[in-house]
Specification:
About 40% of the residues lie in helices and about 15% in strands. It is α+β, with helices and mostly antiparallel strands.
Length: about 70
């Protein structure tokens, strides 16, 4: 699963976009593929990535984290 997500992620990573917003973009992917994609985000210094994720491993070492409490 996640073929459509992979295509959109590849377009975002290799396109000429200055800013990319990922809202649960890797939710249908395996943890291994998800980790590799997030490593690629960190390597790319020419783009700004805003990532929304419920997987703690995706956000544990990011520059800025915003955590929401339950309402």
């Amino acid at each position: 699963g996640g073929e459509a997500q992979r295509i959109m992620i590849a377009r975002a990573l290799y396109g000429r976009y200055r800013a990319v917003i990922f809202d649960e973009a890797t939710s249908a992917l395996t943890a291994n593929v998800d980790r590799k994609i997030h490593e690629r985000f960190k390597e790319n210094k020419n783009q700004f990535f805003l990532t929304v994720s419920h997987r703690p491993e995706n956000i544990e070492d990011l520059f800025i984290k915003i955590e929401m409490d339950k309402i």
